[in-house]
Amino acid sequence: MNLAYLDLRHQLRRFVATAFGLGLLFAIVLAMGGIYRGMVEDAVVLVERSGADLWLVQRGTRGPFAERSTVPAVLEDRARAVAGVAWAHPFSSFTLEPEHAGRSLRLTLVGLGWPDDRGASIGVTRGRALERSRGEIVVDASLGLALGETLTLGDDPYRVVGLGAGLVASGGDPLGFVTHADLERIQSYLAADARRALPPGDGDAAPSGPQAILVRVAPGTSVAAVRGRFASFTDVDVYSQSDERSFLLEGVVDKARRQIGLFRGLLALVSGIVVSLVVFNMTVAKTREIALLKLMGARTRLIVSMIVQQALLLSVLAYGVAFAASQVAFGLFPRRVVVGPEELAGVFVLAVGIALVASLAAVRRALQIPPTTILAG
Amino acid sequence: MLALRGERLDKTYGAGDNRVVALSDVTLGVEAGEVAALLGPSGSGKSTLLTTLGLLQLPDRGSVWLAGREVVVGGRALADLSALRRSQIGFVFQKANLVPFLSALENVMVAFEINGQRGRVARRHALDLLGYLGLADRADHRPDELSGGQQQRVAIARALAMSPPLVLADEPTAALDGARSRDVMLLFRRIAHERGTAVVVVTHDHRVLDAFDTVHEMEDGVLAPPRAQGRPLTTPAHLPPP
Q1: Which helix (H) or strand (E) holds A283?
Q2: Please, what are the domains in chain B?
Q3: What are B3-41's pLDDT values in tens digits?
Q4: How many domains does chain A have?
Q5: Do A283 and A362 have their domain in common?
Q6: Do A84 and A217 share a domain, yes or no?
Q7: Looking at the complex, does the CB of residue B174 fall below 8 Å from at least one CB of chain A?
Q8: Among residues A76, A90, A191, B138, which one has the fewest Cβ atoms lying within 10 Å of its Cβ?
Q9: Does B129 lie at the interface with A, CB-CB under 8 angstroms?
Q10: Sign of the four-CA dihedral A368, A371, A372, A374
Q11: Residue of chain A minimizing CA distance to B50
């Protein structure tokens, strides 16, 4: 006979309603973690799918993901000439908002190093990679464009030849991939267009080169050795893929991590207070029953276990609600929410921890109830 | 054999002008199978004596023997009092104090649960007890589905669960009408005589005094010498045989 269960059976509706509400709180805690993980995964998509081992960026900068960087176009050929380099491609990206079919799209455009890089490594899920040097684009499916559809960028039409999944920039905007030459053409057109709108003398000149050069080290060659050879290039700094990944995460994502972490902490605190109040009130409501048990000589552990079991059951049930909500609702969020086994396990441990801590006040209260309370009539 | 003995018990509450003497040199003995009444006006110290004999509080001075074993001496416990309450004493109150979310059977099983006895054996014992008290057909009823007398009988079944040598009852008939009060007292007599249980009942109810073997009267914390009773009540026909 489990007294905790029998008590809950008696007030099942109220208990389930409380667990449901608490479960939504846990779902938000889960979502916050998933949103952060989604941000991290989104942020590093470009770096990880570039296939580059080394990034050559403007001297004195940390590269395009941290600050403005421009390198000379000839750097691509110089890099290719270094021993141990398999390939070297220009890299540039910028965000634009073209009009299409009466609506405004927002995407981050990335230039591929045609003809060597046609976008095979970016993960095309429908259609194909680029096959022509001009007028083709691969976009993320979330942009809502269909294969074969034409999108006007700058002054030229671009046919959608491939769709990918999960291709987003660190800001969450869908990515689009064109040849680097096309990207420069679009960029020049938009810069000229912007300059026309400004008084003479104002405005930046059109970009004079790519933002970075991506370098792939030949198989069997040490990345560190090739990186050392670039030390003689006095006009650039060289970073590894892992360096660029860190720059990305230290920038935008790190602030978001701290903010989300603070928010999750507050939510965990609120959840703890809710569980604590619920369990405390359930204990107060059982004052006479607890006094009776104590008068009958019940061991302290029987009373403590009844309270702790109820708190645990409440938290675990709430966790179940949160898990169900994550399976049903998180896919509807505008940004990617990545909830993996670690996140699920983490929130489960949090729920159990909250239950244990939250039951302390109730246990203390129960232990203070004098058994003679039952004689008071 | 003495099932219970309290010797030279003193208990005082408060201090100075607020000092109240609840027990003053109280000595009391109850034999196994004896049904004893504790009478007295409000504030006479009956409840203090009951809670002291029930090991719910310690006296300032004096000793308590339970089933021949000294468990309190000089106002100090010589044993785990909770453990003694679990196994040696059954309590019955003015209200039945049944757990509202448990059935009659489960309320009796609580006593077994507290003593670490679970499963079919505990269930069978609880059912046997309910049957003994004429409640076999009410085993699955919740307290709010039982009459006051039936609730009190479930409470008595709970008190008897561990077959304790002593049952302490605090005004068990106060909330019952005359007929039901007599039923409850008859039950106590039957339990005492058939099971050898010592029963101590705090009561104001003069209607049932003839159910007791001895009557102890208290006033201002002092216990008068016991008064033996003459003719005990007989078992009514509607109560089931043991």
Answers
A1: helix A254-285
A2: 2-228 (3.40.50.300)
A3: 899 999 999 998 888 889 999 999 999 999 999 999 988
A4: 2
A5: yes
A6: yes
A7: no
A8: A191
A9: no
A10: positive
A11: A375
